[in-house]
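Q: What structure does this chain adopt?
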Amino acid sequence: MPHHDVDLEAGSLSEWIPDPRRKSISLSLMSAHEDTNFRIYAEYKLCIKSQMNGKDLERTANHLFSYCDFDRGWPAFHSLDDIKDSSKGYLVKDTLIVEAEVTLVRKAPPAHYILKIDSYSFLLAILKIKGASFYSTDIFEASGYKWRLYFYPDGDKERYGEGCISLYVSIEDTSALQLGWEIDANVTFFVYDQIRDEYLMFQDTKRLHEINKECGIAQLLDLSYFKNPTNGFLFHDKCVVGVEIFANIYTGVGECLPVPEKFYYNPYTWKINDYSKCANVLYSEVFVRGNHHWKLRLCPKGDFGQEGKSLSLYLELVESEPATRIYADYKFQLKNQESGEDFELTGLDVFSSSTPSWGFSEFLSINDVEDSSKGFLVEDALIIQVEIIHISAVKKFS
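A:
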């Protein structure tokens, strides 16, 4: 059901409970409304969180809050000794965490389907004669699917709804859906307050499939509240319930970024002869690493603002598949043909059809490359190596 989650962290517990004679911790929910005419029915849960093992302390209740009756809870929620027991994990570093969940109301009616009962007693009589426990509506459409609403005016006793009204929806006519279909349904049920012209909202979220086509709430609203005429839900023997459904089918389509594979291939070596006579853009032959096709692009005179300053070097993905995305960890080396002290830079980039090329516009200064004493350019030949260390290719699935 729609709710606000409120996390409350008390400061010092010794300040929060000053009376040393107190044996239990008290916990209550208070309305902050200042309107003297307000009335809100709330189904709420109060919880003291265990910060160690997840075994929280929680209690649920419902109440009709008003200006004169604005708080409700438990004067003895739990033993104070238990709260202070460090092994339980409720009090950690003198901090207690309290959580509350509370229902909401709204003025707007349900968008998808409304069931009006002009005689609640007549409905009960019909169901009793037929030996039935629920009323089912005609099929209606919502979010592109067909549904049916089920109303249990005296509670769904088989699913522990005795003493409450129960509401469910089921998806119908699923024969046209693909085999193995799954639908995530976010369903909001409504009960109309005829006096105040507002709706209580209760939410259920469930993944529906061929085996489970139904979702709903057995203990939707306590019958004593529902039948009390001053609350407006059952008024002059009339009542109104409704539903909104927002559903998305699970198509099974997605993608996976796998663990990067480490490759042990020899580095690809590109030897460029007659370097001084080369054009400003050179391409290596295409080579294969990790089942993907690559090539190197070299700009001896630089590019992207490094013209005349630095040699520019790039690794390019040759594949043209639009959906291809590859994370690659790579290392460039400009081989020192005399001392063996190679110059290297590493990169980690995402290669795709839209961004197939990655590398360094400022790989190494042209002066250093052409300086014969550095050992990179020997007999007008330059040797470049690239090692693709890891590859993780995004995989589509359906």
